[in-house]
Amino acid sequence: MYVCGLTPQDHSHLGHGLLGMRFDIVRRYLAYRRLNVNYVQNVTDIDDKIIDKVLKTGQDPLKMTRALTDEFYECLTRLHALPVERITRVTEFVPEIIRFIEQLIAKEFAYVTPDGGVYFDVSKKADYGKLSNQNTAMLFESVRKELDTQKRSPVDFALWKRDESSALSQPSPWGIGRPGWHIECSAMIHEVLGDRIDIHGGGLDIKFPHHENEIAQSEAYSGCGFATFWMHSGLLNIDGQKMSKSLNNSARLVDGIERYGAAPLRFVVARHHYRSAIDLNDKLFRDNLNSLLEFHRLFARIPEIEQASSDNTDAESSAVIEAFETAMNNDFNSPEALVALEQFRALVLRKLEVAKEPTAEITNKARLLRELGEILGLFFDPLEVIETQGLNLIAQVLNAKPLTIAEIHACIAERSEARAAKNFLRSDQIRDEMALRGVELLDSKNSVTFRFA
């Protein structure tokens, strides 16, 4: 599995994190189904935007891109994403990219211009456009504009660009320059995974032209098919608008983790199919925080869960496994899988309420519930972390100082004392004060808990 990754010319944003979380779910489920997954992700550390920034700021390009890449993968670690097997950086594959281009020229799929550029001749690939259903005759106005007037056709795309402007420029048979965007992925895939791969992933925004061009040059090079399955992640919106720098709503990934919390972010991502767009807004988290909280409240009530066997031999356990796998087998339908887990959580909770104490059966079922959730990237944190992340998010929505767990327990104790003294006015005041700060107190026969309001 190869997933197009970062172009580190600025801090990674929430869209990068969304892609990382979604393909982490795919990778985890494939491993759960006992498939050996070799997950490779690239870092495009030679790119027009990187060069523009380096020329403006005078930064060392390798130091800059390495620091931004490290920041991104540190964020993914905080989001409980498994590390990829290999990260391929363009700067480490330039000789291989040049050899790949030379073969395309030799096979007459590419041509050299007098100024030292190399372009792929789209007219030589009869099925060009098959991934995105593009008609080449209609593409003249929609392709990325190239200033090079020496191209044979406006739809031909660059394999090598003549450029001596920065430290990223390197010698080639056609002069000093740098690779084009699309050829980089094709050459790196060829070197580390071979001519044909099982899954190629990326964001929906690069389906055309990037993935389309990858297919054209890779199949022209090898003479065989390229990727068996293409997976494109839906895009990220912020409060109903597409996230973009032009709209000034591009949220850094590290800031998104601080605002929303790692666990709530992953829960919301699992709630959406990987092909769908996600609109990040306060209501979305309000609607999901309490479900996440209920899972962790259940786990916290079962002290022996770590020692449980996650036994799945009984009918109820087998049923949730079947429902979970049926959902995930259907194009990784994580929302449907999560619903199956919520229904199983309700079943386990009912059993616990009846038994009063966690039995071996209840403990095994809870362990199974948590293990299935981990495939979706969930349930790695203790209850206290979930409560704190939720309280921090609620406080930011209300623009207030976050409540601490200790403060909530103190208010619950004071309210209990007020009720015992039949001071119901004060009891109601405390409840209303908590509600204004985003916490709803819940009374039961034997205890008082809270949920996010």
Which features would summarize this protein structure in a list?
15 helices; single chain; alpha/beta; 14 strands; elongated; 453 residues
Specify the biggest β-sheet: 5 strands, parallel
Number of strand segments: 14
Which range does the strand content fall in? 5-15%
Distance between the termini: 41 Å
Number of helices: 15
The helix content is 40-55%
Q: Radius of gyration, Cα only, in angstroms? A: 26 Å
Order of helices and strands: EHEHHEHEEEEHEHEEEHHEHHHHHHHEE
Low-pLDDT stretches: none
* Form type: elongated
Q: Which class do the helix and strand fractions yield?
A: alpha/beta
Main sheet: which strands, in order across?
3-2-1-8-9
Notes on the protein architecture:
- With about 450 residues, this protein is of the alpha/beta class.
- The protein is built from 15 helices and 14 strands.
- Helix 5 (about 180-190) packs across helix 6.
- It is elongated.
- It starts with a strand and ends with a strand.
- The model has no long low-confidence stretch (mean pLDDT about 95).
Give the arrangement of secondary structure elements.
Blueprint: E1 2-6, H1 14-32, E2 40-43, H2 48-57, H3 61-78, E3 86-89, H4 94-106, E4 110-112, E5 118-120, E6 157-162, E7 177-179, H5 181-192, E8 197-203, H6 207-222, E9 227-233, E10 236-238, E11 241-242, H7 253-260, H8 262-270, E12 278-280, H9 282-300, H10 315-329, H11 334-355, H12 360-375, H13 383-398, H14 405-420, H15 424-436, E13 439-443, E14 448-452
Parallel strand pairs: 1-2, 1-8, 2-3, 8-9, 10-12
Antiparallel strand pairs: 4-5, 5-6, 6-7, 10-11, 13-14
